[in-house]
Design goal:
88% helix; 5 helices; single chain; 191 residues; mainly alpha
Amino acid sequence: LNTVWFGFADCLTAMTRFASDYSAKDGASTMERLKALSGPLNTMGSQLVTERGRQLYGEIQASYKRLLDAMTTMSEKAAAVRNSQDSMHKVEKEITDTIIAFNQRVDKEMREEGDAVLESNRNGQNVMMGVGIAGLALGIILATLIIMGIVKVLNDMAMFAGALADGNFDYQVTPPEKGEIGAMVGFMQRI
């Protein structure tokens, strides 16, 4: 009887270990211990003489069978779980490898195209700088021509005013345009 009780206790400990990690090794060890318990159980059954003892023995045998069936089912399901986990790990590795390859390809293309993009930016900046300098030069030239035109009219007007101050009323100034400056020259000649 002690052998059976210690055997059951050993099986429960092994099953607890198996239930915590579902390793194939712990599952096989637990099944071996359960099957090894069959012999002492049969021996115990043949030694029982009372009706109540045989009745309890029948309940123990039924419990043992249910325990053996449950362990078989757990082992099968644990194997299916391990297979599923292995499949998931393979898919995870494939996805990880795909992402790494994609990142490496993008990085390579960025490095290859990066120099071209930088060169294109430099060219665009050079063109913009050239257009800016050309616009500035054109502005300076136009401003110079406008200022020279105004200075010429002012010099002509100064000569005209100087001639009037000297009493030379015959001095003539030709208006360069018909706008405000031309009107001013016309009014000065009327004086």
